[in-house]
Amino acid sequence: MKTLAFTILMGLGAVASAKDKPSDKIPVTTASPDARDLYMKAQDLADKLRGTDAHELFAKAAAKDKDFALAYLGMANTGGTAKDFFESLGKAVALEGKVSPGEKLLIQAADQGAKNDLAHQKESLDNLAQMFPSDERVANQLGAYYFGRQDYAQSIASYEKAIKINPAFTQPYNQLGYAYRFSGKLPDAERTFKKYIELIPGDPNPYDSYAELLMEEGKFADSIASYKKALAIDGNFVASYIGIGNDQMFEGKGDDARKTFAQFAKVARTDGERRQAIFWTVIAYSFEGAWDKALAEGDKMVAIANERKDNAMLANDYNLLGNTRPARRGGGEVQAPAGHQRQGRLAGGGQRDDEAQWPVRRRARRTREARPQDREGQGRGVREAGERQAEPVRGPPAARAARHDRDRRQAVEDRGRRVVPREPARSTRAVLGRGRDEGRRRRERCQDHGRQGRQLQRARAGLRVRAREGAGAREVI
């Protein structure tokens, strides 16, 4: 199986792998041959989704070389908790100035993805693809980006390119099978997973992935048998315990599912794995409506997060508890759960009043429970407004601003609200009739004003005449 080319920095010299040209693959920069060997073994395990085993070797590689940036990136990608991920990623980012341009782009893409900066992440991956068009891992990374965006057509093309570059590179087969599955192409997914099993029959993950496809097809007994094949190869392959438990839940065997998750908890090696076992036990109880028991299990997750002082983990736990408690109360009056209040304090740094959100949740629940014919046409106005806004806007800035304001007002009106009070719509005849009536009233007012003005002028003229006549009489006297 091909691996990444590597560069070992010794003083000012560099030694590249003879297997590939230095420009063909992303180099792996380290000052320690031992660290490089550990990294390659860890990378092979990570390719087979054996994250916990890979994480230990990545950590040993980083211990051999404190400036081994890609080892820290590997630790981040295989970390069991959010805290482990961000701590290791931060160390990799701090060392990006000491690595090759390709490694730097790889680290930046991971950091941008963690920050949800998808545009720059795509740019970094595109630059990597241009720099290393023959690197199967770069094509695989690009496929993972499209897969995360649910652009399965593009992800399938990228995974197929990675397989074409190196047919022995097995990781793309796994994700390609899932991309086919999520695209609704189940026969292609089955063909891909069977090829995956053929390539590495002694590895647990191919059987696990194929079992998940069988679960989706409703073949629960066959799915459990495939999961058990994975566990026969590696009893610590925890994803298969989760899969068996899900099959048992779908079969209506909740007690058996919880026994499976209890076995998972016994073989768990890290806090992340222990929390997974507890989480799925919460789901198993919730699946049966046993809310009190689900909440009791959820408190165990909170205890682990508190012990680790991991606020990101703790916020997720309180979110889980907060979403479970309203369900327990059924259709009665719902109070804002303590879980959501605590999550607000953790995320926002202070007390947050969530009570105003519960009427919204009740309306959402009533909407979900409404008959399909009652929901017909919901959101139509919003979609139409979106279509209008998607049209190109041309013209000077003033015209664009007017267009934007008009579309905003129309969108608000489509949702049943008004920006400003408006008079009810009238027909054209009514509008024209109203104009004629208004014009007639104005003419009448003008005529009245004219008559009043003429009368006033005659009165003033009469006064002047009488005044002159009076003055003449006084002169004669």
| Total strands | 3
Low-pLDDT stretches: 1-22, 329-341, 344-360, 371-395, 417-426, 471-477
Sketch the topology as an H/E string, one letter per element.
EEEHHHHHHHHHHHHHHHHHHHHHHH
Helical content band:
over 70%
In short:
The protein has helices at residues 33-47, 51-64, 69-77, 82-94, 101-114, 118-131, 136-148, 152-165, 171-182, 186-199, 204-216, 220-233, 238-250, 254-267, 271-287, 291-308, 311-328, 338-348, 357-369, 372-375, 380-390, 397-414, 428-476, and strands at 7-10, 13-16, 29-30.
What does this structure look like?
It is a single chain. A 3-stranded mixed β-sheet has the order 2-1-3, covered by helices on one side. The termini are far apart. Helix 9 packs parallel to helix 11 (204-216), helix 10 (186-199) runs antiparallel to helix 11 (204-216) and helix 11 runs antiparallel to helix 12. Helices cover 72% and strands 2% of the residues. The protein is built from 23 helices and 3 strands. The chain has a domain at 1-134: Tetratricopeptide repeat domain (Serine Threonine Protein Phosphatase 5, Tetratricopeptide repeat, Alpha Horseshoe), CATH 1.25.40.10. It is elongated, with a radius of gyration of 37 Å. Residues 1-22, 329-341, 344-360, 371-395, 417-426 and 471-477 have low confidence and may be disordered. The protein has 477 residues and is an all-alpha fold. Strand 1 and strand 2 (13-16) form a beta hairpin. It has helices at 33-47, 51-64, 69-77, 82-94, 101-114, 118-131, 136-148, 152-165, 171-182, 186-199, 204-216, 220-233, 238-250, 254-267, 271-287, 291-308, 311-328, 338-348, 357-369, 372-375, 380-390, 397-414, 428-476, and strands at residues 7-10, 13-16, 29-30.
